[in-house]
Design brief:
Helices cover 36% and strands 11% of the residues. It is built from three helices and three strands, in the order ββααβα.
Amino acid sequence: MHVRGVGRVPCDICFIGEGPGWQEDKAGKPFVGKTGDEIDRYLDGEDLPTRNNVFLTNIFRDYVGRDYVWTQEDLARCEPELLRELRAVKPKVI
């Protein structure tokens, strides 16, 4: 499944992961599963905003296997979507 960014638009803070894992692929959104639990632990609304007040996305958009090594072709395919998101989100901090 193609995993797109989620969150507030525009937004001051954006987290960008490398690419989705199988859980993100299944859910269709970034930062779920173990990584999502860890992000949620930090995004507690006290030291950092809550998950609902940030934008979460990935450089690469499709899960292609655990040991896959991303290529320049993958970046060329995924970069335009990431740049569109960043132009819309206008984050102050990435």
